[in-house]
Specification:
heterodimer, A: 233 residues, alpha/beta, four-stranded antiparallel beta sheet, 7 helices, 34% helix, globular, B: 425 residues, alpha+beta, six-stranded mixed beta barrel, two-stranded antiparallel ribbon, 52% helix, 18% strand
Chain lengths: 233, 425
């Protein structure tokens, strides 16, 4: 699903150049649930940005679902993001003046799906995350865990190939975190490929594969038997 | 598909984002509202002034030149300078015959000459009025609405009848209310004339509106005989037809008259003239300039409103950086974002602009109601109004301005990278 070869990325900081990714080789098969771990400055966010087509590598190749991601125009990048990827953010990033169902329907709106179909799909995904009853509520009427579940429904709405989650539990308490992880595990069980960036070891333990990043290099890449989140809720 | 103006969802997005900043939006929109309000008001005011001034030309054939004899200032064909001469009725025929494009040539006499008035008596009442010797054609050059009786006709001219058509002002002063007027005899400089008609001059505006009602018209031939005038003509009122301007015919008229009276072709002072058309054109030109000023000032005020909108949109976009980033991450193209910002600013501009137009027209209609109540013919201000064309122009300006206002914020918005959305505060 994801093939990355010899990926380099550096940032210009004034006159200094900061070499963030120093040659990453990384493959993800369909249906994997991967966590990327590392301290801040390890390059994990940069890697996620590149995988999310939010940033472009200086060197190396990145292939997503057999499509080479290179020198895309803003328009095509937007189209690929919409088609291939679903984003889950640490701070949820729901649009605060839209109710839950409209937030979930937003990626479909940008796909040009008509209103009726959009709302049907959005409601379906809200049901999936257990929030169908909250469809017409505004984000500020929801708890943190509920917000993140709406965000997950939104990420799923366009039926992407890969879900990218950047510290999805970073703003949540432990109990709610595990509930969210349970949901993520369920989605993975249905076959969705999911990448999670986290620095919380207990969250990483709930994935099937842990990739450790340090100073721009992968220092460890191990497959594990995931802890079932449901058991801890 | 997403950029279509008729897309209901796009409008929903726009209304939502405007509503999410309700109060600020209203404050900002007020700038444009005010600008267009002032613009429309200024246009209406200049229009009102124009209507007021042009009212004084109303009922008068403006394509007219007045021509009269003055002193000769150059000797010619052995004739000395300083000589006096007079126009005569034959000149009128010569003008009609030789100059193409004239509609009416009216030889006219005024008793006592330009600016003078004469004593007129009826029974024990007397007053001082302007007396004109005229042909019936004068009706095509001056708008005299007959209130009672008739105007003069060619039978009066041929038979040199001593009949008089008096103005409503004359009637009011010489006759008491309810008294019989038609058929009565008035004495003009001791000569009796039978009153056959009463007119009201319809050129209502202007400073001499009241004087215009105090004139007396008598047949030209009668005038000659009664006041021992011979064939002389005091002045000509010459009107061109619809296909010519009198200004363009002025030179041939002058040349012909000079030739007929042995005046040096270069003698500019021998024939006096007053070109009503030129005058009318100058006044009209003034109002074109005034409308221009109204547009200019209104537009400047409008621009400050536009800058306000542009400014607030910029701030809104800065505040919504994260939201725009999220939208981009979810698949919004730069085009989606740009059209949303542009349409949002266009929508704000046009809505507030139309509110300004409506409010201004509302005020104008109230003003018109008040002005209608004060029906003063001397007032230099009448019926302030804006035409549909002006509204259309204002709308056009608004649209352009709305787009301009959105342009900079839109460019700022599409520079926002979706990566912003991932950045945690």
């Amino acid at each position: 699903m994801i093939e990355i070869k010899d990926l380099h990325k550096s940032y210009q900081m004034g006159s200094n150049s900061l070499h963030v990714l120093k040659g990453i080789d990384f493959n993800v098969q369909e249906g994997e649930l991967v966590s990327i771990m590392g301290s801040s400055g390890s390059g994990k966010s940069t890697l996620l940005n590149i995988i999310g087509i939010l940033d472009e590598a200086d060197k190396g190749t990145y292939t997503l679902d057999n499509t080479i991601i290179k020198n895309l125009s803003e328009k095509v990048a937007a189209e690929y993001r919409n088609k291939f990827l679903g984003f889950i953010f640490q701070s949820f990033n729901l649009i605060n003046y839209k109710n839950a169902i409209d937030n979930v329907a937003l990626p479909l709106y940008y796909q040009g799906v008509n209103r009726k179909e959009r709302n049907e799909k959005a409601l379906h995904y809200l049901e999936k995350v257990g929030l169908a009853d909250w469809a017409t509520h505004l984000p500020n009427e929801l708890s943190g865990g509920q917000k993140q579940r709406v965000a997950i429904a939104r990420a799923l709405a366009s039926d992407p190939k890969v879900l990218l989650a950047d510290e999805p539990t970073g703003a949540l308490d432990t109990k709610t975190s595990y509930e969210v992880m349970e949901l993520i595990q369920n989605i993975n069980d249905e076959g969705k490929t999911i990448l999670i960036v986290t620095h919380e070891p207990d969250i990483a333990q709930m994935t099937k594969r842990i990739v450790d990043l340090k100073d721009g290099l992968i220092i460890n890449d191990t497959y594990i038997e995931p802890v079932i989140a449901k058991a801890h809720v | 598909m997403n950029s279509s103006l008729l897309n209901k969802d796009l409008w929903k997005e726009i209304i939502e984002s405007i509503r999410s900043n309700g109060f600020r939006t209203i404050i900002t929109a007020f700038g444009v509202f005010w600008g267009i309000f002032i613009l429309v008001l200024l246009l209406a005011a200049s229009n009102g002034l124009k209507n007021g001034i042009l009212r004084s030309f109303e009922g008068t054939a403006t394509n007219t030149v007045f021509v009269w004899a003055q002193g000769i200032s150059k000797s010619y064909k052995g004739l000395p300078k300083g000589r006096r001469y007079q126009f005569n009725v034959k000149d009128a025929n010569a003008l009609r015959k030789n100059i193409k494009g004239l509609k009416t040539v009216s030889p006219r006499n005024r008793l006592g000459g330009y600016g003078s008035s004469n004593s007129v008596q009826y029974k024990l009442n007397s007053g001082s009025y302007s007396i004109y010797g005229d042909y019936p054609e004068i009706l095509t050059q001056q708008s005299l609405g007959m209130q009672a009786g008739r105007f003069m006709n060619y039978s009066d001219i041929d038979k040199k009848r001593k009949v008089a058509i008096i103005g409503i002002g004359v009637k009011n002063e010489l006759f008491t209310n309810g008294e019989k007027v038609l058929g009565e005899y008035i004495k003009i400089q001791g000569v009796s004339f039978k009153v056959v008609g009463i007119y009201k001059n319809n050129s209502s505006g202007g400073g001499d509106a009241i004087e215009k009602q105090k004139e007396i018209f008598i047949p030209f031939t009668t005038y000659d005989q009664a006041f021992n005038n011979g064939n002389k003509v005091g002045f000509f009122a010459i009107t061109a037809d619809e296909n010519h301007t009198i200004s363009s015919l002025k030179e041939p008229i002058m040349a012909l008259l000079r030739k007929r009276h042995d005046i040096h072709p270069e003698d500019k002072r021998a024939i006096g003239n007053f070109d009503l058309f030129e005058m009318f054109k100058k006044v009209s030109g003034l109002f074109i300039a005034l409308t221009g000023v109204a547009y200019f000032v209104g537009f400047l005020i409008l621009i400050s409103g536009i800058i306000g909108i542009s400014n607030i949109m910029l701030i809104v976009i800065k505040e919504r950086t994260k939201e725009i980033g999220v939208r981009r991450a979810l698949g919004a193209t730069p085009g989606n974002i740009r059209s949303q910002v542009l349409i949002e600013s266009l929508f704000l501009t046009i809505i507030s602009g139309m509110a300004g137009v409506s409010f201004a027209t509302f005020l104008i209609s109230i003003l018109n109601l008040i002005l209608d109540k004060i029906d003063n013919p001397d007032m230099m201000f009448a019926n302030p109004s804006v035409s549909l064309i002006n509204i259309a122009v204002a709308l056009f300006i608004l649209t352009i301005c709305g787009l301009l206002a959105g342009l900079i914020p839109a460019q700022t918005a599409i520079k926002i990278k979706p990566i912003e959305a991932l950045r945690n505060e």
